[in-house]
């Protein structure tokens, strides 16, 4: 009986120990066979620092929240619209964008004008006839504040004008020296380019045009996006 009782005790111990190990084994197996984290979730959690797509964007500048800045360039002056347009077509390449020709009315330095001051129309016409008979190069001013004046010559040089004026006075002509205002239509070429290409394009344009430009304006283009700031 003692042997039988001891055997029952040992059997109970074995069954209790076995049932505990079985539950522990089942619990470990369920963890081992569960679903693994997806690769995408690892990237989004930052385990790799920068995902593959982010590395690609850094390389080509796309998706970084920044549009590369453009410089707006204007050069002039050209004597005609066609000259500016033709030059843009010749030197323009993939680096020159949105070019256009601008027309502007410019006030130039006045000329020096020798005239006989305005008179009543009939008197001015009679004097003009006498002057032409004498071989004096002259014409009647038909409009403006000096209407009915007699023009005796236009000069760029003030010294030359003053010399001729003295001659006319020696001929007993009541001549005076006044300014002759003048305007000129001029044309400028405007275009957009990356800052690192601006100097190259301007030099190419000057070389092709065969002259130095009177002015060159370079400014950042308005409306170009700047690097995006994170909130």
Walkthrough of the structure:
This protein has 231 residues and is of the alpha+beta class. Among the domains are: 71-107 and 185-220, 2-Layer Sandwich (Alpha-Beta Plaits); 108-182, Sporulation related repeat (Alpha-Beta Plaits, 2-Layer Sandwich), CATH 3.30.70.1070. Helix content is 42%, strand content 26%. α4 packs across α7 (195-209). The radius of gyration is 46 Å and the shape is elongated. Mean pLDDT is 74; it is low at 21-67 and 224-231.
List the helices and strands and how they pair.
Blueprint: H1 2-32, H2 39-44, H3 52-60, E1 71-78, H4 81-91, E2 97-116, H5 121-133, E3 139-140, E4 150-155, H6 158-170, E5 176-193, H7 195-209, E6 215-220
Helix pairs in contact: 4-7
Question: What's this model, at a glance?
Answer:
With 231 residues, this protein is an alpha+beta fold. Helices cover 42% and strands 26% of the residues. Helix 4 crosses helix 7 (195-209).
What series of H and E elements makes up the topology? HHHEHEHEEHEHE
CATH superfamily of the domain at 108-182, called what? Sporulation related repeat
Termini separation comes to: 84 Å
Q: Structural class from helices and strands?
A: alpha+beta
* Tally of alpha and pi helices: 7
Can you tell me the CATH topology of the domain at 108-182?
Alpha-Beta Plaits
CATH class of the domain at 108-182: Alpha Beta
- Give the helix proportion (percent range): 40-55%
Strand element count: 6
Query: Any low-confidence stretches, pLDDT <50, length ≥5?
Result: 21-67, 224-231
What's the Cα radius of gyration?
46 Å
* Strand ordering within the main sheet: 3-4-2-5-1-6
């Amino acid at each position: 009986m003692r042997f039988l009782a001891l055997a029952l005790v040992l059997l109970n111990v074995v069954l209790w120990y076995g049932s505990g190990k079985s539950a522990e084994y089942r619990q470990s197996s369920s963890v081992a066979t569960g679903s693994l984290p997806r690769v995408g979730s690892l990237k989004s959690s930052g385990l790799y620092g920068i995902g593959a797509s982010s590395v690609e964007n850094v390389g080509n500048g796309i998706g970084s929240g920044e549009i590369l800045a453009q410089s707006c360039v204007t050069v002039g002056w050209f004597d005609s619209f066609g000259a500016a347009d033709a030059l843009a077509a010749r030197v323009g390449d993939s680096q020159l964008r949105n070019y256009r020709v601008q027309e502007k009315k410019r006030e130039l330095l006045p000329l020096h004008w020798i005239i006989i001051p305005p008179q009543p129309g009939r008197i001015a016409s009679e004097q003009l006839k006498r002057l032409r008979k004498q071989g004096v190069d002259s014409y009647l001013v038909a409009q403006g504040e000096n209407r009915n004046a007699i023009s005796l010559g236009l000069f760029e040089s003030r010294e030359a004008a003053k010399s001729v004026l003295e001659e006319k006075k020696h001929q007993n002509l009541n001549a005076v020296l006044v300014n002759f205002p003048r305007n000129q239509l001029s044309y400028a070429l405007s275009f957009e380019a990356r800052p690192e290409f601006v100097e190259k394009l301007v030099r190419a344009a000057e070389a092709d045009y065969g002259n130095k430009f009177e002015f060159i304006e370079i400014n950042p283009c308005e409306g170009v996006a700047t690097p995006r700031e994170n909130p």
